[in-house]
Amino acid sequence: MSNEIDFDEILGKYRLDPYNYVDIFSSQTGVVNFKVEKGNGVEAPGGEWMHIPGTALYQITRERNPKIVGSPINGIVSELHAELEGQFVEAGEKLMTIRHPLKKKEIIENILQEVLYLFPAPEKAKYFFSLDIQARIEKKGARSVIIKPGEEIFTMSLMKRDTPVFYNGEQGAIHSIYFKPGISIDQGEPLIGVCALEKLPLIQKVITRVRAEWDNMS
Amino acid sequence: MAAYRLSADGLKSYITEIELPMRRAGSLPGVTETIFRYGAFVGSVITHYPKLDRAMTHARGHIAVAEQENRSVANGTTIIADYLTGSKGRFTRTWHAPAGGLWGSIIYVNTLLPRSRLLLPLAVGVACCEALRDSGAKKSVIRWINDVLVDGLKIGGFLMESFHGADSGEEFFLIGFGINVNNMAFPDALKDLATSLSRHLGHSLDLEIFTYCFLAKLQWNIGLLYFEEEHFSKEGHWLRSGGRHCLLDRWSELSDSVGKQVVFGFDVVKKPQFEAKVIGISDDGGLQLSLNDGTVITEYSGEIRYI
Q: I need a labelling partner for B295 at 20 to 30 A (CA). Which of A13, A16, A82, A195 fits?
């Protein structure tokens, strides 16, 4: 978590290349068949509960069991390892890259993620705030809720098994919430971004500066 | 207070005399003893109380004391109370646990691989449904994940919580169970939603025998998880070559969820999310749903109600 941000350098970087490059890796071992070509546009999952899968990117077949994998994000297929078509791949093999155009809100979040402490999801599961944290959020708003290491902040729910999740980052306010109750979160994805109290002015500065300058940049 | 004391020895006798011969005559005769050996930790210690506040809370306290004293907790320790004074269901739901029912929790130290671990809640539902059917409630069915119903009314429900021991770092699972056996009266809020075995059958049952029956089924079905896990590791396929995990097959035989139109929600009572049709169960126990717009999704967390 840094205390200083070189705004000109960071904004200059986004001005030059306002994209995220998302690498897509094979989800398991199996034979790959691509469903897209380089240059194709792809859509992210949609629907009220993100239940409509993204554009089909590839099919992977293991033990005669084919599985279609959808795009996690919208954008353009900027790189494709076409030589893997019809080949057997190991889990984690890079298959393609999607170039995702960033919106102003996403740029703010990207910069904030360099300042905030991001608390990741320990497993792919659904998460909800612990009763105590939820009550405090409802009463005061998330950004007024201070959490400390060792505090129970979430309940993780998977196959009707509920597991308390304890916070292990530095003390601070819940600045950003990246999950919605009832929607599955992948392992390692951030659940919340926590900000030490003394860094709140810096956060505000990031937001104000990007909002003010982004419209001129694009 | 019950006139009997449940014990690990009583469970062993039940398994030797009743469950083992029945399983030998069943669909997996060559591996019966092996499966029971894998599941034998269930009920290795049974403590039976006249009453408790919550069995889950008592189990947590039992683990905490053992860890403070630098002792291990016996895997499969089963805590049973004749009635509970502070029982609750998932979220903030109430659970009525008067005398006559089977109420308790099992302490399980997780040693399953992640793929098998996902199926543990299904094993609990299968055990309950099998015990109810063996006791005469032939129409008992499982509603995903592991609610057990008879004639559309809930008769058995389960909670599962997991956490790491503060000192040992062990991953403990607490499996809470509540089965309406001989309890006849229900509060107004539940009387149209729940029933008991005695209500359904029109006569009461021997609760001691039913308890042993349920625990014996649990030994078998949890043992099956370990057995299949080992078989897959060695052979690269489940016991029934080309087929599915034996537990999933059994769950599918006992469940009426597939084909049903349902409402789904993480907390379906308070916040129903969408309607869908159940089209199957995935190899890792997820619920496969077809939405009204034709999208097919698999859910691993949440609950359903039939429409």
A: A82
CB contact under 8 A, A162 and B159: yes
Contact B297 A51 (CB under 8 A): yes
Residue-wise pLDDT tens digits, B73-90: 999 999 999 999 988 887
Per DSSP, the three-state class of A190 is strand
B159 CB within 8 Å of a chain A CB: yes
Among residues 155-184 of chain A, which lie with CB inside 8 Å of chain B? 157-164, 181-182, 184
Strand B78-84 and strand B46-52: the pairing is parallel
Whether B266 sits inside 8 A of A164 (CB atoms) is no
Residue B25 CB-density burial (10 A; 0-12 exposed, 13-18 middle, 19+ buried): exposed
Contact B160/A182, CB-based, under 8 Å? Answer: no
Domains of chain B: 8-235 (3.30.930.10), 257-306 (2.30.30.100)
- Which H or E run includes A85? none
Whether omega for the bond prior to residue A76 falls within 30 degrees of 0, making it cis, is no
The amino acid occupying position B266 is: F
Q: Tokens 């996403």 sit at which residue? A: A106
Mean pLDDT over all residues of chain B? 94
Copy the structure tokens of residue B195. 């029933």
Q: Which residues in chain A are classed under CATH 2.40.50.100?
A: 19-101, 104-217
Please give the Cα distance from B70 to A97 (Å, whole number): 51
Q: What are the pLDDT digits (tens) for B267-299?
A: 898 889 899 999 999 999 999 999 988 888 899
Please, are residues B216 and B11 in contact by the beta-carbon 8 Å criterion? yes
Interface test with chain B among A29, A50, A51, by most B beta carbons within 10 Å: A51
Could you say which of B162, B266, B293 has the minimum Cβ distance to residue A161?
B162
B107: preceding bond cis by omega (within 30 degrees): no
Token digits for B30?
A: 């060559």
What residues of chain B score a pLDDT lower than 70? 1
Q: Look-up: residue for tokens 């069943």?
A: B26
Strand partners, B45: none
Distance CA B232, CA B251 (A): 19
Token pair listed for A174: 């819940």
CA distance A141 to chain B (A): 21
- Fold of the domain spanning A104-217: OB fold (Dihydrolipoamide Acetyltransferase, E2P) (2.40.50)
- Going from the C-alpha of B61 to that of each of B53, B57, B66, B83, B146, the distances in angstroms are 12, 6, 9, 18, 26
Cβ-in-10-Å burial (0-12, 13-18, 19+) of B138 comes to exposed
Q: What is the ipTM of this complex?
A: 0.84
Pairing of strands A190-195, A172-177: antiparallel
Q: Say yes or no: B207 contacts chain A, CB-CB below 8 A.
A: no
- CATH number for the A19-101 domain, one of 3.40.640.10, 2.40.50.100, 3.40.50.300, 3.40.50.1760? 2.40.50.100
